[in-house]
Amino acid sequence: MNALLHGDAAADAAAEDAPLLRLSGVNAGYGDVKVLRDVDLEVARGEIVTLLGPNGAGKTTLLLACSGFVNVTSGDIAFHGQSLIGTVPHAIARRGVAHIPEDRSLWPTLTVDEHLRLTAKPGALDVYDLFPEIARMRHKRAGLMSGGEQQMLAMARALVSNPEILLVDEMSMGLAPVIVERLFGTLEEIAASQGIGVLLVEQHVHLALRHATRGYVLAGGRIRTSGTAAELNARWSEVRASYLGTS
Ligand code: ATP
Predict the structure, then answer these.
(1) What would the pLDDT profile of 48-99 be if each residue is shown by its tens digit?
(2) What pTM value is reported for the model?
(3) Which domains does the chain possess?
(4) Whose C-alpha in 1, 45, 112, 247 is 20 to 30 A from the C-alpha of 152?
(5) Are 196 and 226 in contact (CB under 8 A)?
(6) How far is ligand 1, taken at its centre, from the CA of residue 90, in Å?
(7) Quick check: CB of 174 below 6 Å from ligand 1?
């Protein structure tokens, strides 16, 4: 970094150099239950990073730790180089971290429009352009929509908050393959066009690796290996046998 930079300018330059999201040596869990152990992970702008691993590995816990819902006992989670530790979830969301949970957390009696109005910020993406399917049902209650439509609404609601990173948990759960491909395509489009980073938990390994830039494998709360999506795909049977307990 330029030695002539001082104070705010130096901090701004450091933030500019830092990856969007960086976990370093993160230990986290629920009370006495330790789940994440010494986790290091990074997501850059415009990158889709997938977090893979068996049931109970701690994938959801890692996303929850990033959005402030799970206590980090040691290590750091930094966003643009600034620590998020001790920051409450709504303040983390305001800083540009949007979490799309596995259950989507929609309000069944609220309409599509109402959901979007609750989180929309000025200058937000035109999500009705991105998802014409839900534009046609803007006055429909979420509880009456199909699973795929609900997932589009969950993604649209996250996007209108002008996030810099999306944390996406099991987007494909219970959805038809054609809808899943459509949603992954949209993630790729917004990552490329808006520079939004994506950290994506996914059970369907090959699907995730087809759309991601890089991936990490978490098992027993530890990162066991990582690499580009192409590298992980090429050595997946070895990775699976070594870390996931199957052959
Ligand atoms: P899956 O793929 O099955 O969703 P995961 O990799 O997302 O699994 P987590 O849901 O993060 O795993 O769970 C990791 C561990 O933390 C599990 O052993 C789980 O039982 C435990 N755990 C999850 N939530 C809690 C909680 N609220 N209190 C205590 N332990 C919890």
Answers:
(1) 999 999 999 999 999 999 999 999 999 999 999 999 999 999 999 999 999 9
(2) 0.91
(3) 24-243 (3.40.50.300)
(4) 45
(5) no
(6) 22
(7) no
